[in-house]
């Protein structure tokens, strides 16, 4: 077993709020750090691939770093976030855009 840490970014086009944050965050690109437990499981190998080992990953934690990457600040803070909280915040950000686009097309017609 091994813990694997990876990083990625996520972009919000509008200010957003999330559980665990005292105040809404500005639009921008934020760094995510994910820790996964990685194990090899040769019991998952099929008869077609004898001797092979399949890697199984389980997400242990996801952290978002604040503030956004575009804001220069020497003291970065991180907070734990669940995949479902992140998905809800991104969906809300995308729905806001879809709502605005629908409103703009209704006005221009």
Please explain how this structure is put together.
This protein has 109 residues and is an alpha+beta fold. Helix content is 24%, strand content 39%. It is built from one helix and four strands, in the order E-E-E-E-H. It has one helix at 83-108; strands at 2-12, 28-41, 54-66, 77-80. A four-stranded antiparallel sheet has the order 1-2-3-4. The chain is elongated, with a radius of gyration of 20 Å. The termini are far apart.
What are the salient characteristics of this protein?
single chain; 109 residues; alpha+beta; 24% helix; elongated
- Structural class, by secondary structure, is alpha+beta
Order of SSEs: EEEEH
Strand content: 35-45%
Sum up the overall morphology in one term: elongated
Number of helices: 1
What is the percent of helical residues? 10-25%
Cα-atom radius of gyration: 20 Å
How does the major sheet shape up? 4 strands, antiparallel
Looking across the biggest beta sheet, what order are the strands in?
1-2-3-4
Please write out the topology.
Layout: E1 2-12, E2 28-41, E3 54-66, E4 77-80, H1 83-108
Antiparallel strand pairs: 1-2, 2-3, 3-4
Summarize the structure.
Helix content is 24%, strand content 39%.
